[in-house]
Amino acid sequence: MYDREARFPMEETMNPARIEYTEKSVMHMESRRCDILAISRSGAILGIVTRFKIPSQFYLDVPKTRIPKIGCVLMRTKVNNTIEVRFLRLMTANEMQRIYVYSTHPAHRDWVVDVRTW
Description:
With 118 residues, the protein is mainly beta. 8% of the residues lie in helices and 41% in strands. It contains 1 helix and 6 strands. It is globular, with a radius of gyration of 14 Å.
């Protein structure tokens, strides 16, 4: 399924986020902090703050943007404490704009909130 999807170009960003998952199929949700280092409509590269066992499927929560939890699949783990994930659905242009508005990356310094689209 993922090999037939169109690849969208990644754009660097810097957003605080959380990885949320269930531990051993228990109802209790675990949460770990991370940073979104690059994002596209179909996936992201996340920087992990602390070392932990990363599940193959989890939710990505970006609290400031008011985007509902995004379902993710782990694609690749890299040695420099980063992981590559694919989203279970494509991000809309409005959601991407919200990510860029709340990014602390210098490339997104001039982005402003368009209240009419919220």
